[in-house]
Amino acid sequence: MTLDELKKDDQTYVSGAYARFDLAIREGKNAVCWDYDGKRYVDFGSGIGVNSLGFADDKWIMAVAEQAKRFAHCSNLYYSEPCIRVAKTLCERTGMKKAFFQNSGAEANEAMIKAARKYSHDHYGDGRHEIVSLVNSFHGRTVTTLTATGQEGMHKDFAPFTGGFVYAKANDAADLGEKVSEKTCAILVELVQGEGGVVPLDLVFVDQVAKLCEKEDILLLIDEVQTGVGRTGSLYAFEQFGLSPDLVSTAKGLGGGLPIGAVLFGEKTKDVFGPGDHGSTFGGNAAVCAGAAAVLERMDEAFLKDVRRKGERIREKLMGLSNVETVSGLGMMLGVSLKKGTGKEAAVRCLERGLIVLTAKERIRLLPPLTIGDAELEEGLSILCSVIESF
Ligand SMILES: *Cc1c(COP(=O)(O)O)cnc(C)c1O
Q1: The pTM is what?
Q2: Distance, CA 39 to ligand 1 centroid (Å)?
């Protein structure tokens, strides 16, 4: 196969919902991959934060293959050891009380929204169902999570949207105060807005949100689909903000490349779902959960410390460039805004020179595999720096 042959069939047979870069990966190992011409790339994108252990991690392959040999799927009608193990690990490591498994970030957010509304209905009855989310947020592509997404431009073409969402400005406690009412059941935030441009929330604002939630029995919902599973230098970003959330969603990096999402329930919400209240045929799939268990096992304190060190190294290197306006983000989730040139233009030039990077709004977005070695990190940084200075 050549890239041109693949492109032709893709354009004929695959729905055009994505504008693709000129790259088809044939195989990879950790933070390096090769295309169909044998050209080598350093990966600073990890499949949008999914390949947390990079491509083809040996222990992860073993864990998934061994489970697939026994059984891959058994249905949630039966007990499943890999699923139970991941739930237990997530709860023990985060202080959350229970987990429910899904297959993607949007689905995890759907479950979180349903859980929040049910909690409120159980305790307060009808009418207290509104969820306040933030302007510039991203929560997924299903009709309801798209509605939760606070980006005006995405609220078109698919009407009618789900009712019961209002939007407050990030880092603006006064605006949030105006949007919260007796109808509010939950506030939904990303601690670092990923698709929105890698924009972290202020600690002070987050603290005000948490206090308001506590006072009014409004549930605090944290979307950690992108920030979770070590990405920001702690297992979950909420730890760095000193929060005890009522519900947390997690997905992207959790499966190490396989599709998984989960909702984590806090003390207040842990028993909100009873039999029949929610479901997912594939959720908690044994082979997928074996992969997630391998990912979580790797992420001990030393691993997370190394994520923080590598994040600092990237930041330090980029801050020294004359064409860099700002570097935003936490850990190894970073956004770079340029004085001259757009993120998209930079991503195309990086790819030509053998480096994969992402974009978010006008920014370059970096989500390298958390396992990237120092040699590949420096190699990628040197390409990135020369591209940034080429405008
Ligand atoms: C990617 C993302 C989602 C959606 O996840 P999918 O797996 O694509 O459904 C939701 N929230 C955030 C913060 C994300 O980054």
Answers
A1: 0.98
A2: 30
